[in-house]
Every structure is written in structure tokens, then in C-alpha cells.
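Quick illustration, no need to memorize.
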Amino acid sequence: MRIYIYTLLILLSLLFAQSLVAKVYKYTDANGIIYYTNNKPTGHSFKVLTFPCYAGSRKCGQISWENVRLMPTKYANLIELAAAESSVDAALIRAIIHAESAFNPEAESPKGAQGLMQLMPFNQQRLGVSNPFLPEQNIPGGAKHLAELYSQFGDDFDRVVAAYNAGAGAVNKYDGVPPFAETVEYLRRVKILYRRYGSL
């Protein structure tokens, strides 16, 4: 099937400072061509895709992460179980989920990261994830990945979180947090959310 992108308007540029998601409509025409648009289709069945404030969006830095609403009860059982199995703090798992996908299990970033903890396809098999959009697979997979990074970087929180965003290779290359604007902002965001979830 030939796939054409008619209009893929990632509405992140239209988000207000406190908004975390935007809507994009996906539909397929009679010829099998897939379209993405920010206008609600008429005459076609469609799927609504929600796009969180991804790490690469400048709007992420404009969100007041000190005041954004927390979601401590979302997937609570799965998070607590994954935390116990991986020995990773549940507050950090929540912070990563919030920072990565705003708790949207169907999130898929422009770079191809998928699900709640935005797992990249090349990591999923190693982490035991066959369907990254299922919370019961994605959360344990993401927690396992965090545990691996802790094993690699010890108790260096900044390096662990930076590696989750930019990759362990980048952290090793720069011997610390890579000087990428996206990663620096991501680390700031996760630190705030981790502190807030940890204080509940």
C-alpha cells in the first residue's frame, strides 16, 4: 500500500503553555491512501491520534511543570509492580511516563518512540515488549530499561535520565549529560516531575 501524508500537522506548535496533547485525525480513502489532518474528516471513518508535548518540542519548555496536573492514580498497579520488579522508584517511572507521553498509551513520537514510556522499536524486543501500546508491556519494559541504565551509570540520576532520552552512547561520548537542548530540557522536566510525584 502506498502511503501519502496529506497533512500531518503536529499541533504542538498550537499548544497553550498548560496543554499537553493535540489532536490529529487519521483516515484512509477509497484508494487506500492514508491521510493525516488537523481538520475533522467528513464522509470517512477516522481515528483520533493524540500527540503529547514531546521532548523535541520547544513548547515543552514553556509548560509550567511545577503546576501541571499530576496523575498519580493512572496505571498505579502496573507502575508499582514494575517498580518492585525492576527496583526503580515508582515516582521516577511516573515522571518518565508523564514527561514522555502525558500518560497516553497510544502516543507515538515523530522519531518513532511508542507508548507510555516511549520505547524505541530497536529496544522493544530486548525489553520483552511485543506490543508497545499495551501498558502492561510498555511500563515493565520502560522500567527494565531504566534499571539497565542504573546498572550502567550507577546512582548518577542525571546520566540515567539523560541516557533514557539521548541514549547511553551519547552520555558516554560526552562523559555526562549531552549538551543537546532537548536532553537538557528533558532532564529539567523529569527532575521536577520526579520531585513532585515523590512528595505525594
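The longest helix spans residues 135-153.
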